[in-house]
Amino acid sequence: MTTQLRRTLWGINVGIALAHIGNYVYFPLLVSNLGVAYSGFWAGFVMFLTYVGRLTSTFSYEGLSQRIGVRGGIIAGVAVEALALWGMGFVHGVAAYSVLAFFVGFGSGMSFPGLKNILSTFPEADRPKAFSSFQMACQLGAIGGALIGGLFVHLSMAVLFSTVFALFAVYCLAAVFVIPADTAPADTAGAPAAKAPLFSLAVLKGIRLGGGGRYFVLSSVFWLLSISFLVGIPLHMQEYVKGLPISMPFWITGITLLVLQFPVLRLLNRHLQPGQVMAVGFAAMTAAYLLFGAGRSAVWVILGCFVVVFGDILFTPSFDLWVAKQMPRENLSRAMGSMHFFRSFGNMVGTLAAGALYDLARTTGLPGLNWYVVAVIAIGCALFSLAGARRTAEPAPVEPAREPAAAQAA
């Protein structure tokens, strides 16, 4: 890896680590506070709006990145996210939080796929290290944020979100000074690439759902399951495990992922097909959600946290590498936008469902019902992954759909 690539990777990893520190400082506290002040549904609804914002940004990502460059898109996205988070410290009511949550998500939807886009342009031999270190930076940030978050429990929301704003401001500066400016795509003749529209639904046609395309759909369900934990566990802790810090599950999962990700993923990839590896991850999520539902004490929560993290360990890095390998370099912007679309859609549905299912479990007098529902979905995904592994040893390449000439000219 060249000196320039190392510098770029260092800047990206520092920035994303700071972002995750900020996210895991405020996320559990905001969900818990909204759940107490309003309900599980409204807590989920505010987080749902962040993913509506992320989903919306996927329709503008390619056009904006072509006009201002991938680096410019990252800087603009981080700035929008930072300002919206700062505003959260000074507003009241679900409506105000919801509007700001949308812009938090929109900014994230511009910056996060931009970072993945840059990593995907690294030489193929350097990509595994780049993606692995990126994932590690995310987890170190999540652990740090979860540990630091406990210091803000008794402080005002203004102090909390001003601190988060400061972290994102440093993240923005890292993007300005470390990520190279020459990341805007160009055609083979060296001229600027044909401009995509500023708002386009082409991302919906960018992936054909044949062969390996089923993994994109599966990824959407994975993120639905993953966000069910992120939204559901602070509400669960507030109701049933009040003796422990609300952020505790997040530093347990973060430390577990950090320690086990590389050895477990390497071991399973050596002996299993991709579909089988993902099936193991979904099976672990099933077991964890059954633990949360069956036992509502601290011991059951801690055990579940150690198990649920295997979903992230086994699914996320494999999927990133698969997309980078299958997609041609010139289509990476659209591929990353498509990948982010499926992720955002799963998270969007999952946040709303998690809060609603929590309220349903309480109103029906069936504690744990919300966890049992997502456990059933997880075991269905595990069986689907196994069926796919039996059909083919490797996922077929995903071909970008060609747009009509008139659409390209526009």
From TrEMBL:
The lineage of its organism: Bacteria, Bacillati, Actinomycetota, Actinomycetes, Kitasatosporales. The chain crosses the membrane at residues 12-31, 37-56, 68-88, 94-115, 136-153, 159-179, 215-236, 248-268, 275-292, 298-319, 340-358, 370-389. Signal peptide: none annotated. Pfam families: MFS_1. Keywords: Cell membrane, Membrane, Transmembrane, Transmembrane helix, Transport. This is MFS family permease. The keyword Transmembrane helix applies. Residues 1-393 form the Major facilitator superfamily (MFS) profile domain. It is found in: Cell membrane. It is a multi-pass membrane protein. It comes from Kitasatospora paracochleata. PROSITE patterns: MFS. It comes from the Bacteria.
